[in-house]
Specification:
alpha/beta, 7 strands, 277 residues, binds nicotinamide-adenine-dinucleotide, Rossmann fold
Amino acid sequence: MAVSLFKGKQVLVTGASSGIGYETALAFARRGANLILVDINAVALDTAAQTVREQGVQCLTWTADVSDAQAMSGLADAVHDAVGALDVLVNNAGIAFLGSFLETPPETWRRILDVNVMGVVHGNNVFLPHMLKAGGPRHVVNVASAAGLAPMCQMSAYVASKHAVVGLSETLEMELSGSEVGVSVICPGIINTPIARPNAANVGRSITQSQIERLAQFYRTKGAHPSLVGESIVDAVQSGKGVVLVGPAARLIYNLRRMSRSLLMKALIAESKKIWA
Ligand SMILES: NC(=O)c1ccc[n+]([C@@H]2O[C@H](COP(=O)([O-])OP(=O)(O)OC[C@H]3O[C@@H](n4cnc5c(N)ncnc54)[C@H](O)[C@@H]3O)[C@@H](O)[C@H]2O)c1
C-alpha cells in the first residue's frame, strides 16, 4: 500500500547519519515527515539531526547497532512509546568489504551478513508487527544494491548480503500483498558516499593504496549524489513500487543480466579491471 502524504508521518531511517540514509531522512523531512534517525555513529547522528530539524520537523535520534537483536528490540520499545507505530521504515544501514573471496576472512563474512542482512531482518522483526496491527497504509523500504542483482569483483560478502536483501524483500512483499503495508527494495548503482572510501580495516591484504584511490576516483567521477536515492525512496513509498533501480549502472546491469548472463559477466570483468588490475 502506498503512503502518499508525509506531513506529520513517522519515518525511521537506519544508517541515517551519512550518505544515502542522511539524504533519505532529509527528503522525507522536506515533505513534513517527522524523523527517527538511527546510527552506530552517535556524533554524526547529532549533526544529521540538527539539519533535519532545520526543515521544521521533529527528529529523534537513537544510537544502535542494527546487527544487535537486543539493541534493536530496545530501540523499538522506545520508539513505540515515543511515537507509536511507524508509517515508514527504511532499513538502510550497511557496510562493505573490498577484497577477493580468498582474502575475505570468516569473521568479515559474519560481520557483513550481521549488519547487511540481519540488520534488515531485525528492523523488520521489531517494527513490522506494530505497523500491521496499527492498520492504514504504511511502507517498509529495504536498501539493497545493484550488487543484489549481479556479481561484483572483490565484493563477494557484500554481493551475497545484498542478494539476500533482495530475496527477503521480494518474499516479504509477496507475503504482505494482502495487507496495507507495502514493501520496496532499493537497488542503487554507483553512488558517491563514504562507503566507497574504505579504511584499512575494510579491505583485503593485497588491495593496494592506488587501487583504493582508483575506486574512490571512479565513485567521484561516475557516482551519483546520494540525494538521488533519497528522492527515489520517497517515490517508491508514494508509488508502492517493489524493486527500484536507481543511479548509474543499476538499470543497465539489470537489463543485461536478463538478456545475456555471459555478456554481463564479460562487461563486469572488463569494468573491474580498470580499478583492480
Ligand atoms: N554508495 C553506493 O554506491 C551504494 C550502492 C548501493 C547500495 N548502497 C547501500 O546503501 C546503504 C547506505 O550506504 P551509503 O553508501 O550511504 O554508505 P555510508 O557509509 O555513507 O552510510 C552508511 C551508514 O550506516 C551506518 N552504519 C554502519 N554500520 C551500522 C550498524 N551496524 N548499525 C547502525 N548503523 C550503521 C554508518 O555509520 C553510516 O552512517 C548501504 O546499505 C549500502 O550497502 C550503497
